[in-house]
């Protein structure tokens, strides 16, 4: 029994050490906090449910003054989801650096890589866009992800645009088809992308916070900086699910379009 206790204690120590190392590696997958994208003011938030998770966001420079902007969500939680998230990040960055005629072809290539590298029960939703700072054009593919929101305040009203899904999640089906779209951003627009850990946060009654509450809050965020918007969302989600444990990974990406490029 003493041998078993010592063995168990050693196993727990090694496991804790490995988990701490994994957390550090996991953090390194995300962009630097001081990253500067021309023409955009950005703020992000990520909190895994289990210390390590499958939510993903990324910003990276491309040729021609473009920037890749991505947010994704691997089904499940924990280390398995994080491993697939790492594969997704590496595959997307590698494909995006190559010349491509259309984003739909790029995402189809990423889909094939994810399908080949992941077990059948794991898949990932992904919103990938390429932002051109000079024209403020956002080209994107939404592969089964929660539709990001663009808010535009003009003439005393707030217009809300949804960048809807036009394809299945990655790694889910063979020969999936994807469609690319274009959105013209304007100065003052606010882009908000999120994972379902935000909108599916629960209260004690099992009620979800929901997209309607998110949009109602966002409509009242005129003249708010991205950091303020993130703070307001998190405050409301926390108050809604007071004393309830976090059940899913949570990620936010908020970007405001600035005058200068």
Q: Main traits of this protein?
A:
261 residues; alpha+beta; Phosphatase 2c, domain 1; 5-stranded antiparallel beta sheet; 10 strands; 34% helix
At CATH level 3, the topology is: Phosphatase 2c, domain 1
Proportion of residues in helical segments: 25-40%
Any idea what the CATH superfamily is called?
Answer: PPM-type phosphatase domain
Structural class: alpha+beta
C-alpha Rg, in Å? 19 Å
In DSSP terms (H or I, runs of 4 or more residues), the helix count works out at 6
CATH architecture: 4-Layer Sandwich
SSE run: HEEEHHEEEEEEHHHE
Which CATH top level class fits? Answer: Alpha Beta
Distance between the termini: 68 Å
**SS strand fraction:** 25-35%
Q: How many distinct folded domains?
A: 1
Shape: globular
Q: How would you state the average pLDDT, rounded? A: 89
Q: What low-confidence regions span 5 or more consecutive residues with pLDDT below 50? A: none
Q: What is the spatial order of strands in the main beta sheet?
A: 1-10-9-6-7
Describe the structure.
The structure is a single chain. This protein has six helices and ten strands. It has 261 residues and is an alpha+beta fold. The protein has a single domain, classed as PPM-type phosphatase domain (Phosphatase 2c, domain 1). The strands form two sheets. A five-stranded antiparallel sheet has the order 1-10-9-6-7. It has a five-stranded antiparallel sheet with strand order 2-3-4-5-8, covered by helices on one side. α2 (78-96) runs antiparallel to α3 (103-117). The longest helix has 27 residues, at 2-28. The N and C termini lie far apart (68 Å). The mean pLDDT is 89.
């Amino acid at each position: 029994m003493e041998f078993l206790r010592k063995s168990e204690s050693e196993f727990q120590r090694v496991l804790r050490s490995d988990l701490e190392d994994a957390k550090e590696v996991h953090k390194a997958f995300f962009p630097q906090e001081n990253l500067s994208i021309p023409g955009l003011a950005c703020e992000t938030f990520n909190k895994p449910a289990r210390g390590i998770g499958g939510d993903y966001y990324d910003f990276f420079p491309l040729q021609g003054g473009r920037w890749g902007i991505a947010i994704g969500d691997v089904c499940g939680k924990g280390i398995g989801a994080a491993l697939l998230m790492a594969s997704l990040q590496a595959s997307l960055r590698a494909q995006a650096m190559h010349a491509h005629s259309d984003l739909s072809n790029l995402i189809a290539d990423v889909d094939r890589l994810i399908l080949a590298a992941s077990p059948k029960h794991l898949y990932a939703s992904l919103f990938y866009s390429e932002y051109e700072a000079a024209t403020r054009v956002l080209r994107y593919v939404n592969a089964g992800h929660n539709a990001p929101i663009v808010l535009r305040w003009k003439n005393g009203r707030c217009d809300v645009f949804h960048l809807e899904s036009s394809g299945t999640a990655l790694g889910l089906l063979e020969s999936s088809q994807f469609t690319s779209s274009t959105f013209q951003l304007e100065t003052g627009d606010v882009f908000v992308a999120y994972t379902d850990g935000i909108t599916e946060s629960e209260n004690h009654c099992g009620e979800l916070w929901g997209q309607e509450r998110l949009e109602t809050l966002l409509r009242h965020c005129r003249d708010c900086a991205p950091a303020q918007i993130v703070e307001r969302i998190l405050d409301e989600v926390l108050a809604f699910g007071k004393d309830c444990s976090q059940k899913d990974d949570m990620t936010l990406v908020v970007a405001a379009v600035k005058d200068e490029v």
